[in-house]
Structures are given as C-alpha cells and as structure tokens.
Amino acid sequence: MSDSKNKIKKTSKRKLNIYRCMSAGLGLVILIISAVIILTVFIKRTSREPADNYLVSQVITKLLIEIETKEYVEDEAFIAEDVSEENMSVESEVLAENEDDASEDIITEDVSEEDADTNQIDLSDPPSVIANWEIIPAGTIIDASVIDFNNLSQYFVAYEISDEVFSFINEKSYQENPDVALSDLRYMKLLHYNFNHELQVGELIVAADLQSDFIGIFTELFQAEYEIQSMYLPDNYWTGDPTSTDSASIDVNNTSCFMYRPATGSGNLSKHAYGRAIDINPQQNPYVSYTSGSPKWSHENANDYIDRTTGLPHVITEEDICYQVFTKYGFTWGGSWANVKDYQHFQK
C-alpha cells in the first residue's frame, strides 16, 4: 500500500509541474505579442530618430530575454524539485529497509540475551545451586536462604581435576614435574564466610589423600562462622612464575593451597607443591623472620599484625578456632616454628 501511494503522489507532482510549465509558456507568448504591439504603436506615434527606436527595441529585447531566462530557471527548479523528491523517496525507502534490518538485529540480540539468561545459574533456586556447584565461580555470594544448613556436605565437595581446571592451571600453578601427578590432586569447591560475613563460594586444589581432612576442617570452620576473606586459585594472580604469584596472592589477602614451588628461603619443594599446605588470611597472619633478632616481613599490608597480642580480628593464635580445628586433624602450624613464624601456614 505504501508503494502505491508513493507512485500516485509522484505522478500527481509531475502533472502539476507540466501544468506550471505550460502556463509559464503561454504567459511568455502573450507577453511577446503584447510587447510587439506596444512597440509598433510606439514607433508610429513618435517622431523619434532610428537610433532612438533601436534603443527602445534593445530595451524590450533585453526585457524579453530576462523573462525567458526566469521562466527557464523556474522550469529547471521544478524539474530539480521533482528529482529531489524522487531521491528523497528512494532514500526514505532505503532508511525504512535499514530500520527494518535494525529491528531484526535488535530482536536477534534480545533472543541471544534471553538464551544467555537461560544458561545462567539460578542462585535463588537451591536445586540449581547444588546441581551446578562445581561450576559456580569462586567469589560468588550465595544467599543464606538457599543453603540447606542441615545438609552441608553438598557444599563441601572434592572433584578430580577436570579438563577446564587443568587448562587453567597448566604451566602456572601446575608444572609438568616428576613429583606430583594430576591424579594426586583434587579440586575443591566450598562455602565460607567472608569479612562482610556473607556466604561466599571458595575453591582450592588439595592433595587427594587429604581431601577428607580439608572437607572436615572447612565444614567445621563454616559451622563456627569463621571468616576467610577469599579463596581463589592463585592462578588468578599469575605473574609469570610461581614465587611472585604466591606473593601477589598474599598481597590481596587470598587463602590458597596448591602451588608447585620451592619452600620460602629453600631449594626444597614446599608442602604447597603437593597440596599439603594452606595459607589462611595471609594479611592478618604474615610470614615473619626473627633470625636477626628483630621481626622482618615482606608485605606492607601486614604491618598492623606483627604484634600478635593486639586482639585484632582474623589473627590466628593457639586460642583461635582455626588453629584448634586444623591441629585436631593432625596439621602443624607455622606459627609454632622457632626462627621464623609463618602464622598463615598449616601443613600435614
């Protein structure tokens, strides 16, 4: 219907321009005849010299030329206007088509977003949370209303290292080596309270033969509402080598376990290289050396926690529930060492 209306409109416009041209031509003819009559009468009634008569005719001729020129310009304007309107009509049609295409793109985009939303995990649905527990990202905040506190075992689970996890840690925290195979490790997903006392998802890689211990420990800490700022794999802070990556993880107060690396200040492999050691809230529980007589530490974020008697929160002492639970499961504490104190460190 729109195309038919446009064609009728264009035809009417062309007819109107033709009528204008015909009217202008008829007016020009009448004007010329009138001018000739006036000139003839004028010559007969005057006694002017031929030169004067010639001048008058020149003036009239010039006037006629200007009239013709004006009419021609008007005709050209009519034609240009008609062409312009045709072009505008074409442009309008193109714009309309583009708008239709754009609308289709928007619809497609909306559908894609709907598909993406469909693929997202519904964190308000308890069965969905459990079914997707392994793939819920570390750091995700979970509303307490979703958690079944009478069946916590489903939130503290150890898995074999999947292809996705391996691709993330390969040539980072995990290096090809003769000491630790992938089968010796487990990927853990668990719940913990963060420093805002929110329920947060955590992840660790631990020794396979200690998975039951770690599950028991963190279940008990959770039941005691013990706060741990974050638990991400240290690979999230990868710098290019294991030692500086471990330092980067400590700088953001991240709790972590497995990292194939040597022990601090030693050429021997750390217990972390086997997934048999863990560092808890390292900012509040720093590694401090006393070999020179006075304490020395590497991370400035730990400045307020060198004095272990301040009573600040998250400081691990022998009275702290964290110390009590880990030692209950047979772990030893780095805070009990002689010349250095690794207050964050538990190993078995």
Structure description:
The protein is 45% helix and 11% strand. The chain is built from seven helices and nine strands; from the N terminus they run αααββαββααββαβββ. A four-stranded antiparallel β-sheet has the order 1-4-3-2, with helices on one face. The protein has 348 residues and is of the alpha+beta class. The chain has helices at 2-45, 50-119, 126-131, 163-169, 211-223, 242-251, 321-328; strands spanning 141-142, 157-160, 185-193, 199-207, 277-279, 287-289, 332-333, 340-342, 345-347. 24% of the residues are buried. The radius of gyration is 45 Å and the shape is elongated.
Task: Offer a few descriptive terms.
three-stranded antiparallel sheet, 7 helices, alpha+beta, 348 residues, four-stranded antiparallel sheet
**Oligomerization state:** single chain
Give the DSSP E fraction (strand runs of 2 or more residues): 5-15%
Query: What is the number of helices?
Result: 7
Mean pLDDT: 80
Order of helices and strands: HHHEEHEEHHEEHEEE
Helix content: 40-55%
Radius of gyration: 45 Å
**Got a strand count?**
9
The largest β sheet comes out as:
4 strands, antiparallel
Task: Please state the structural category.
Answer: alpha+beta
Uncertain residue ranges: 46-92, 101-118
Q: Compute the separation of the termini in Å.
A: 83 Å
Strand order, sheet with most strands: 1-4-3-2
Shape category: elongated
Helix and strand arrangement:
Elements: H1 2-45, H2 50-119, H3 126-131, E1 141-142, E2 157-160, H4 163-169, E3 185-193, E4 199-207, H5 211-223, H6 242-251, E5 277-279, E6 287-289, H7 321-328, E7 332-333, E8 340-342, E9 345-347
Antiparallel strand pairs: 1-4, 2-3, 3-4, 5-9, 6-8, 7-9
Helix pairs in contact: 1-2
